[in-house]
Every structure is written in structure tokens, then in C-alpha cells.
Amino acid sequence: MTGTEKLLALEGLTKAYPGVVANDDVSFSIAPGRVHALLGENGAGKSTLVKMIYGLVRPDRGRMLLRGAPYEPHTPHDARNAGVAMVFQHFSLFEALDVAENVALGMENPPSQRQLSRRIREVSEEYGLPLDPTRRVGELSAGERQRVEIIRCLLQDPKLLIMDEPTSVLTPQEVDILFETLRKLSEEGTAILYISHKLEEIRALCESATILRLGKVVANCDPREKSARELAELMVGQTLHTPTRESTAEGDVALELSGLSVASSNPFGTSLKDVSVSVRAGEVLGVGGVAGNGQDELLAALSGECLAAPDAVKLKGRSVGQLGPNARRRLGLLAAPEERLGHAAAPDMSLTENALLTGAIRENLVSNGFLKWGSARSFAEIVIERFDVRTPGPEHAARSLSGGNLQKFVIGREILQRPEVLVVNQPTWGVDASAAAAIRQALLDLAAEGAAVIVISQDLDELMEISDRFAALNEGRLSPPRPAKGLTVDEIGLMMGGAHDMEVAHHGAA
Amino acid sequence: MIRLEKRPEPSSLWTAVTPVLAVVLTMIAGGILFAALGNEPVIAIRTIFWDPIFGEFAFYYRGQLLVKAAPLILIAIGLSLGFRAGIWNIGAEGQYIIGAICGAAVGLAFYPANLWIVFPLMVIAGAIGGFLWAMIPAILKTRFNTNEILVSLLLVYVAEAILAWMALGPLRNPEGAGFPGSRNLRQYEAAANLELIEGTGIHWGVIAALIAVIFAYVLLKRHMMGFHIRLTGQSPRAARFAGVNPNMLVIFCLGLSGALAGLAGLFEVSGPAGQISIDFNVFYGFTAIIVAFLGRLHPIGILLAGLLMALTYIGGEAAQSTLGLPAAAIQAFQGMLLFFLLAVDLLTNYRVRLGREGVA
Predict the structure, then answer these.
(1) What is the distance in angstroms between the Cα of B19 and the nearest Cα belonging to chain A?
(2) Alpha helices, DSSP H only, in A293-372?
(3) How high is the pLDDT of residue A248?
(4) Which of A389, B118, B206, B231 has CB 3.0 to 4.6 Å from B239, enough for a Cys bridge?
(5) For every residue of B263-280, which 3-state class applies, written as one string?
(6) Is A271 in the B-facing interface, judged by CB distances under 8 Å?
């Protein structure tokens, strides 16, 4: 820390939930105008910590000082009055309302809509975040929605801006532009607390970092002086295992999509438009793209939850577009959706029942409509054992597992059914680093055994690590796939749909 | 400070204990209610819960218990399957009425032929009548996405209107001196659903209710259909992913509950009630909703809840005649039962913590 001035100081903050200490004696401070990173794995206690700063959660012990004075926000309202603003990872916007109305809803005393629209235009131009106040939020891209949230905060002229995983919904170009905005803010004296687990971003943006592991501060450092690997190992507390793969011979075409168009079942979803691609046996196809560009719809169209024209989806030459999920499973096309609880698995059902959920057909867990509980249980036990799922036993409910363990169960359940083609959406979202590495390795092993694997993900590092070829979804269209090796970040960004006109704004503002 | 804390898994202990706790709380609150009405609470509770089974006139009441419980159980079993899948058939009362009308009409059509086939045909007609009446909300839901709660409920009133028309018109007893109501099926041997064993109250409806309990138990525990029903109720999206066709499930659940309600109506009209009359229905279809929830939507639970509910009916009537308790007090008492059950139900998924949020 340079200088003695502190905007916000945390001293010995402790917060416990039943069975887990989310934050244990956390102390650090943020100087005005600094971009300070808060780094840690899922479950390290980052969210709890920022919730305490933002007045959503009260600490059990410890205190906070804002500009030297005791700071005890009881509600986010108190926090905002003290000059602390926050942009959440999950947006709290009403899709049916327009931008200005959404901004007004978050304000204590909103001015008239016309004045507010003018203010929104001014702020968006000043910080290079173009936004039309009259557009309906439902029509905006994820990146644009984030701008609504950011502008809502900036209108309050905050001294400290908390950003929770802001880049997970952005293309690389949009990330660059966001960083320019954040740097401009920090030059003007606004401190930024930047929460992420993306190390390269933090090294590019932040001047200081606090690393949390299991609720404790394990290091304070300047991220620019550390390598990404060093930071990761501080986060995880162990040396990381990088997945390895052997290159495999090109197999026959296992899955072919031609002119696949499917309307989204969600009114604000993205319809798939003329998606064509083929995947060979033994190959991993990575599908990138900003969230909300048709990922869920692509998975549904492949799993059979959404039906399409028969010829639009071909499995080993056979038309399957009109078949439902179980008919496709029978033929060897398996899928693992993004949402673990409530889609890939039923939260209140036991793991045995969840094994039955997709395994009934291929694992022969049903005879004449009657369930073979013994077989289902042993299948669940095999998944638990082979994929190192931490649970006392298969009779426990899916929701009692941590996110990472349930994800291992879900992926393992599909992989152990020996698919011909496996489609996974966000296989490592919210999963700790070692579990993520295990899942990626399992996907690579599956491909090495001759299955075709489609990995839909928003984690570009993950896709570059395991894909043979890479394609990007942009507004429901799939770019032609390109070999993943040698692709630059710029090229990937362009495939993902560029920056949604943001450069222009920045040049205009500069 | 009292706080509620979500359990990581539903507690199996509390799942079993909550109905008992609800009954105890109902007895306490009911006792206070009866005391406020100027009755001796202990005697009132004993009159309702104890005397019908163990009292002086138990030989009469015990048979009545099964007669009352059978339709409740039969209907509640059907409803529980739909409720588990998140398909809300609130109109069992209407399906019950239509089943009774269809079954009775078939029986009356054969009058006075004494053929063995008459009663089986009536049973089939009763089931089909209830099934078809339930198909109206089912098809409207699957084709036009209407709300089955509203459609099935409103069809109850249509069914009541049809019942009145039938009792006054097409099914009226031609030898009944112009009084509304059909011929008494109890007096028509081929169509009568009489006690199978003297003095027990067991008629064909009781047998059907027991079969339904076993059927539902096996379906839910061991059959893929039951698994899909439970899955759809818990996570509709996961159910689609598992290959469940939601429309098929709506047809199945509404159809089955309609058919069972229709059967209950048929057994009632050919047995205890005896005839189609304007006031034939006594809200078994609505009370069965309480029975289904009181029994935790579980077949065995419903069996016990149906018996308990029948007991409050019979005991309530006894209390009305011997203690002079008003009928409304008995209804309030039955309502309390559902109220307390839903309230303590919270403890299955949450635990109560006293004191401040502590450091674990």
C-alpha cells in the first residue's frame, strides 16, 4: 500500500454460518482510487465478505472503517448512502421495463424520466458505456445489461464500487472496454473492489490483491508481480494438475447438425438460427460465446428437450431431430445441462434417484416399467466412487452436495453411460479448481476412448485447454469451427461477435 | 430470537411426526374452542375421537367409519398422484357426481333385469364418467394451457347442476309419486352395493379403496410412472430432461384421479346413498383434498388420514347430537386439522433455532 490514506479498512471480520466459517478474521484495506482484487475459489468467502461491506449481512465479529470512521451498514441503503455501490454477478433487472425505468427503480429519489434519461446518456458517454435509456432490457445483450447496472451505480457517484465477477458475461473486447471504464473511474479517485477468479484479468487490471482461501486471508500481494500460476496455487493451496491429452486419430462423423433452427421456449431467450457443424468421434468441439447467446437452446436441441426437423440433427448418419431425450439416449447421444439443481438433477431426490434420472435406459435400470432400485443404487455408487463425489452415500439428497461434487456426479453419470456423443454446458461452472481439472480430464479421456464431445462454456481458458476445434455462438448463430490451436484472443473475440459497437463509443469519448 | 434454518435434506423423522403433532395441536385448539362454547373440552374430544371406536355404540360407528373413509381414501389416492406431479385437480367433487350419475344411469337402464353383469357395467360406467369429466380440464390444459385448478373447480358447479337435472328429470323414479330422486338402487338387487360382511361396513367401495392404496404404493415406489410423477412435481425441468412428456402426465394424473372419484361416486350412489338425489353429494371430493395432504400424499398416510377424517365426521355428528355442539364448530375443527398440518409441515424442511446467529 502506498501512502497511509485508507478508504475502507476491514479489521478482523468474522462471519459464520451453521457448519461453516465463511470469513475468519479477515483484515485488509483499500486505498482511494485503487483497483483492489479479491481473489479466491468458489466457497472461499468472497461473496460473504462483500455482502458484509454492502450491508446485506452483518458480521459476527470485527469492524469496518470507512475513511477512518466506523462503518456499520445495516442495509444496502446505508451502504449506498455511505458511497458504496455494487454491481452483482446476477443482474437484478426487469426485462419488461426499459433502461431508464430499471435505473429509477434502484434509486432512492428518482428524478423525472426525462431528466434521468439525460443523466444516463451523459454518464454513459463520459465513461464509454453506450446505452439507450429507452430500450427494453429484455432486448439487451448481457454486456449491455451489465452497463445498466454499472450506470445505475455511477449515478450515485460512489466512492467504492464493488464488482462481482463482472466479466463472465462479456466478450474479450467488451472486457477491454470495461477495464478502460474502470481505470478511468479509478483515476478519478473511485476505489474498486474487483472480485474474480480469472487471474489474467486481475493481473491486467488490479494494483493490489487479497487472496482468500477457506474464509481466511492467505496473501496480500501485487498481482502484477505474480504469475497466474502462482496466484492460482495461492488460491487453491496446492500445486495444480493440468489436464493432458493424447492426440487421437480422426474418427468418422458422429454428430452432424445441418441448418438447425429452433425457437427458444423462453420469450427472452435466443432462438437458434441455421446452426451447422459436424463433430467426429474422438474429437472435442468447444463452443464459446457470451452467456445468453443460445447456449441453453443448443443444449436443449441436442438433448432432445427441444425437437427440431428430423434431418437437422444426425447421429452417425441417422436422423434424430424429431426424437425426445430418451430415444436419443438409447442411440448414444447424452447431455449434461448447465443448471445442476433443477435441470440436470432433482434437488430433493437422492443420488440413487438422480442416477435413474438419465441412466434408466442405457444402464438398464428398468424392466417392464418397474424400477430396479438395487441396480440404480449400484450405478450411483459407481459414479460416486469413480468420480470422487464427496458424499456419505447415494441415499442423500442432491441438494446436500456442494456444487462441485454434484457437478462431478452429473458429468460422471453421463460419462459412465459410455456415450457416443456427449454434450455438456458449463461443465466446471462454480466448481473448485481441482474438481474442474478432474472433470476436464474425464472429458478428454472420454474423447480419447472414441466419443465425440461438445463442450459449451463461457470459460475461454477452459475451451482452449481441451478443445480440438472452437466455434462461437453469437445471437443463436454458430460460427464455422476453427482449430483451437493457435487461435488468438482477438480472433476468438471476433468469432464471439466482437464488442457490440463499444469501440466506437470509446473513441468518441476519448 | 427465533429463526428458521433450512435443512440440507428433508427430515424423515419430522415427515412422520408432523401429522401426529398436527392432530395433537388440533385437539388442544379444538378443546379450547369447545370450552369457549361452554362444553367440557375433554368430553367433547373424547366424544369425537374415542367413543365412536371404543364407546357404548361402537358396534354401529365402526361400520360407519369404513363407509365414510372409503370414498375419501379412494378419491384422495387419485388426487395425491396429481398433487405430487404439481397437477391440481380441485374438481374431484364434480367427477364424483358425474361418476355416480353415469353408473346409476347404467344400472337404472337395466331395471328390473336381475343379471350379474349389471353391477360390473355400472362400475365401468362410473369410472368412465369420472374419467371423461376430468378429461375436460386435462385437454383444455394440454391444448390451450388453461389452468386446471379453475377449470376443474368450476366444473363441480356444472356437475351439481347436471345432478339436479338428473334427479328431477331423466333419472327420476317413475314410481316415486313425483318426488325428486331416482329409484333406490339398494332395493334393486343386481345394482346394489350392500355390505359384504354383515356389520362391518365393508362394501365394494372399501375393497376398491384398499386396492387403490396398494396400487398407488407400488406405482410410486417401484414404477417408472411413479418416479416420473414425483420428478415432475419436484423439478419440472429435470423431468423434461429425463424424457417425461408433461402433457401425457397431465392426462394420466387427471384421468386417473377422475376415474377413482367416479368410482367413489358409483359405490356411494349404489350403496350408502342408494339413489341419485339433489343433495346426493356431501363434499367428499373436497374433503379428500384435506385427506390427501394430511396423509402427506403418501398412500399409507392417506389410508390413515382417511380413517381419521371419517372419525371426525362420525364423532362430530355424535358430538352434535349428544353434546349439542354446532355443526360449524365441527367444520372449524376439521379445518384446524389442515391448518395445523400445513403449519408444522415447515419443520420437515426447516429447523427452528433459538438465540442469535452464533459462531459455528
Answers:
(1) 21
(2) 295-303, 325-331, 351-359
(3) 59
(4) B231
(5) HHHHHHHHCCCCCCCCCC
(6) no
Per the CB < 8 Å rule, is A325 touching B5? no
In a domain, A500, yes or no: no
Instruction: Give the mean pLDDT per block of 10 residues along chain A (510 residues).
Output: 71 82 89 90 82 90 91 90 86 86 83 89 86 85 83 89 83 83 90 85 89 89 85 75 62 92 82 93 91 88 94 94 95 94 92 95 93 95 92 89 87 96 90 83 93 91 89 90 84 70 42
Specify whether A281 is located in the same domain as A367: yes
* CA–CA distance, B238 with B242 (Å, rounded to integer): 6
Q: How far is CA B151 from CA A459, B155, B156, B252, B291, in A?
A: 47, 6, 9, 17, 22
Is A330 at the interface with chain B, CB within 8 A?
A: no
pLDDT digit string, tens, across residues B316-346: 888 888 888 888 888 888 888 888 988 888 8
Length of chain A: 510
Q: Which of B94, B210, B205 is nearest to B154 (CA)?
A: B94
Domains of chain A: total: 2
Of B224, B240, B357, the CB nearest to A360: B224
Q: Tens digits of per-residue pLDDT, B84-117?
A: 999 999 999 999 999 999 999 999 999 888 899 9
Within this chain, do residues A189 and A287 fall inside the same structural domain, yes or no? no
Chain B residues whose beta carbon lies within 8 Å of the beta carbon of residue A326: 242-243
Torsion of CA A94, A97, A100, A105, to 10 degrees: -50
> Could you say which of A236, A269, A301 is where a domain stops?
A236
Helix axis angle for B246-270 and B118-144, nearest 10°, is: 150
Range of the domain at A190: 8-236
CB A256 within 8 A of CB A246: no
- Residue A177: all three cell numbers together: 472496454
Report d(CA B325, CA A232) in Å as an integer.
Answer: 74
Type of residue numbered B331: Q
Angle (nearest 5°) at CA B91 between B90 and B92: 100
Q: Residue B332 to residues A138, A331, B36, B298, B342: CA-CA distances in angstroms?
A: 48, 58, 13, 25, 15
A17 touches chain B (CB under 8 A): yes
Q: How far is B235 from chain A (nearest CA, A)?
A: 5
